[in-house]
Amino acid sequence: MSDLKYPRVLLKLSGEALAGERGSGLDFDALRGFAREVKAIAGMGAQIGMVIGGGNIVRGSQISKMGMDRVSADYMGMLGTVINALAFQDVLEKEGLDTRVMTAIRMEEIAEPYIRRRAMRHLEKGRVILLSGGTGNPFFTTDTAASLRAIEIGAEVLMKATKVDGVYDSDPARNSDAVKLDTISYLDVIKRQLRVMDLTAISLCMDNGLPIHVFNLFGENSIRRIVTGESIGTLIS
Ligand code: UDP
Asked: Which is the closest atom of ligand 1 to the Cα of 138?
């Protein structure tokens, strides 16, 4: 445990990540790749909480633009995150990890309700906890859920996987001169509207002094390297 910079982490994967090249649905090859990274840090003694998004299944804001009631659409989105967590649980368990899915909305035939003390106990016993259902409330995102849960469970870092290798001073997809930042403050992310996470998520981390490490999901051993203290990606603090 002693050679880990972050002994307890909250790892946030977007739903899109789970879709891999497919763009939607689930790509089990991608899931197996992430599961092996999670297994590697679990083997090093890291305690791991995960929040998985649902954008590969339903995004409430998009569905509501098609005419559906926003609150119901958001509940659909939250249910999507449970589907993803069950899929990832299966893959993690096939890698030999002990896991629990917990839900922010009760559905006890499927998974345990999220109870903070119980979640902490699972972590202490070395189980990977998959915290699904977002915050349980409409109008929030799973980034905010990840910030909230990370603070609640006392994680030392929120690790946010993205498709690029960190935070840039402008959108690297649109601007070839965009410069990657190694570190940045919460306030600068907000002021410069860098959109790495929504404002609610960033300000929750800022108010509670929780560092956010943004990294490339597809980078070689990214998760392992961050947990052992390598400065890859971007650190927001
Ligand atoms: N959602 C919600 N409340 C939450 C978290 C998520 O209503 O606390 C809904 C919302 O509709 C969102 C969807 O679940 O669009 C999927 O989550 P998100 O968009 O954050 O997933 P990601 O972009 O990480 O895949």
From this structure: 7
